[in-house]
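## retry 2 of 3
previous attempt timed out at serialization; input unchanged, resubmitting
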Amino acid sequence: MNSQSLSQIKAPIEEELKAFERHFKNAMKSHVPLLDKITYYIVQRKGKQVRPIFVFLCAKLWGNITDSTNNAASLIELLHTATLVHDDVVDDSNERRGFFSVNAVWKNKIAVLVGDYLLSKGLLLALDNKEYQILQIVSKAVKEMSEGELMQIEKARKLDIKEEIYYEIIRQKTASLIAAACSAGACSVTKDEATIEKMRLFGETIGIAFQIKDDLFDYGEASIGKPRGIDIKEKKMTLPLIHALSKATFFEKRHIIHSIKKHSTKSKVVKEVIQFVKDKNGLIYAQEAMKSYTDKALEILATFPESQAKQSLYNLVHYVIERER
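## retry succeeded, writing output
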């Protein structure tokens, strides 16, 4: 699917998304010129806004979009942006979506403070509008994202992750925010707890498929958003590699783990690990796992009432796992 498909997906909520853009820009305003300069820089370089699209479509599925829906989308986007700014500091990354990251332009100290500012703006937005349930949903996701990142850092030292630990990491690190976007969207138009929970589960399932797709990019030939082998260089244990190691002999496993531990930044080692994963069918295994989670998400979606929003969500699920970057 291409970007044209994304504009088709947005069709049922196009007007609402335009209103949200204005709402979100206002939510980022401050009285400090430096902060306004940095937040303007961030807004100009924003991504595809997949999470706000999930919020609005999941709201539209169960009712009419309200001020609450705008607040939910703004809160998700503010906290997501805050975590990205902080992530770039944690990862010592100078690039974000092909542009210089905030820490690359303004240094780490300012980037951390900007992340804190965005976080507090999100919390105040929810409290000022008495959006307590939405605040609870999104705050829980931010807590889980932090836990997932810390668990991944801890496990990277040992390089011996079992599949269930990997799934726990990505459920917290990536899927929790998409789950929050879906449940917050539903929560903005209905108070039915079973519906909100069903939407959360839908978001979590597609969030896991989304992360496996991201893992596969590391081994891809296509022109993609991050360079090949970056997860290997950073000693991140992803599903293709975990599976390949589970199929390796004792000596193969020892050699690969030693190579990653000691020489992960060498291009020769990266190439060797990529070839090893391909030889052990790690990519095929990960693709099948991604398909299994996608099917689960579509099964949940199939139980919802028919509407334009449901069709768009169906297309968005496919967009997420068929994207080129």
